[in-house]
Predict the 3D structure of the following.
Amino acid sequence: MSFIRVALDVPLPTLFDYRAAAATSDDIGARVLVPFGRTIAVGVIVELASTTSLPPQRVRRALSILRDVPPLPADILGLLKFCSDYYHHPLGEVVLNALPTRLRQRQAFQGEKATHYRLTGAGLAVAAESLPRRATIKLELLRLLRTAEAGIDEAVLRAIAPRAAAALKTMTEHGWIERVAVARELPRAGAVALRVVPGPALTDEQHAAVASVRSADAGFTPWLLHGVTGSGKTEVYLQLVGDLLACGKQVLLLVPEINLTPQLEALVHARFPDTLLAALHSGLNESERLHNWLAAQSGAAGIVLGTRLAVFTPLPKLGLVVVDEEQDSSFKQTDGLRYSARDLALWRAKQLAIPIVLGSATPALETFHKALNGSYRTLALTRRVNTMPPVIECIDTRREPLIDGMSQALLSALRITMKRGEQSLVFINRRGFAPVLMCPSCGWTSGCERCSAKLVLHLQEQRLRCHHCGHQERVPRACPQCGNQDLKPLGQGTQRIESALARILPSARILRIDRDSTRRKRAWHEMRRQIHAQEVDILVGTQILAKGHDFPQLNLVGVVNADSSLYSTDFRASERLFARLTQVAGRAGRGASRGRVMIQTDFPAHVLYQALCRDDYPAFAKELLAERKQAGFPPFVYQAVLRAEASRLETALEFLIRAAREGAKVESSVTIYDPVPAGMPRRAGLERAQLTVQARSRPGLHAFLRAWQVRLGHAAGRKVRWALDVDPLEL
Ligand SMILES: [Zn+2]
Ligand SMILES: [Zn+2]
């Protein structure tokens, strides 16, 4: 073999041929340095070849094959090829994006460095008695460092006390200790005996769920673990994880959000204290991410816990995949490579012939449909563990004057809950003070110049902010249009609810939790501590709070302003609203007393609220499925959206009209809809439009997309940026 085909991080649907006489089949999946244009690029060897279709003088020589870390295994290359095919995205970008950033860089990986502290001669000479007795941290550091000639990892030393970092600094200034960089050892797969700390006794339903999976035939089985909030889905996962670890297998655990990982990480670690757990999410720095990725790839990590990107992690002994909150839209990437990690996880499990468990209280309709028709097997957890389900009621707000968006009924429930020494949550899915600032005299509203969206009033910071493009400006003193000085905030956001509650319930200790208040590192960690320590009476929060957090003292949940997405043009809006409200409602009553959920609405008779009050997702989902079938929407048809962006809307629309014409030339049975401006036509200064295509069969859709994509390249021109979104979640 004298040629290699290389994936490079460029937006072209092709591999690049290079000469590499020394390459062997062991190098497939390895990184390689190649000349590309006038630069040197890092690529990944995807295939070896004995011939090339290029003229010989145009084939350049690969510079060097990097054998510093093991190559990507064949199953991952297979997954990446499938991903590129299915989402119609260039293979090179797909492959390179799946690598940790450090491995995309040109320097070979030199092994990792860790920072150690060790005693200097002067430090060794320091007598413990010469230090004051209250200098406990310094004394402890000296004692520890005396035991380790090679020094001790900085992270370990810092962990002994909150003030250890300051002590290390002073001791360095005294010349007692010094920092040294040492090579960090990568964990290797070893024969560590599995230690399992027993968990709580299983309920009958949990027991039945675990038993079903255990007794199923080996091979690919997709399971839907449909469990109401608080029914103990996690315990079922942990039991199954234990089974697999006992057989020496690895488990991939996907969760929708980074915020949820520390909690789950702690739980998993407590159950399997000797098993190496590798977390993989965007909250890690590059070196941590690489370290964990290598621990997964070597087989040393028994459990990989991560967000959507973790689906691409090489796991040589993968035996089970769990996708928690499988309905969550954050499993779908919404720019660049628009993949769904849940769907790729299913494909991966199928290829490897292993089971996969999709967990949810409100499964995605696609998933629910497959469970109904028998493609997935269902495990049902219908009852909460040890607690009663909350009482959910609708507060009819049509006739009642609201006080800053809150009803008397909600306010008095908040008061009573506080008197009982319990916690409440007021949920409003909008941060800031008010969604828009308005001039009552001329009708001016605070719009964003770069987006078709309103600027949100953030009163505390005295700013108007766009939540879409990040633009911000000072709050004007007077109307920019007519000079009127009496501008009015319209509607509610978390800040407004917070300040209204502070006024109405002056003795309440209120904590606002939204993206603004949790921006600082560790802010969320500290807030959680405050809530658990009962230093808070009322939480005001967005959906950050809704997901998976257990607060045992929280007994009342009030939902403000939920109606806004009830009559949306997006056919998925009500499915999402139901899921979100179920999650929020699930926060109530996780402790001893029965929870109460009050939903303020102008439409108390709406089927969604009716089903929610009965806690009957299956009935609601079946109704939605019937509607979708009637209207010809997914999951009964398969969709893709061609999205276009340009500085002028006409340019984007003209491209889409050309694209539709090109599509009509492709022989197929897909339906091509008319181009329309996007739901939010202007964003960050770009005009956006889209065109939906729809097919009765998945293969039919993909055959069309393949043929169409070639033609699109010619139709685009330079002024338009376009992308295909397969199985779009947002229209
Ligand atoms: Zn005005
Ligand atoms: Zn904007």
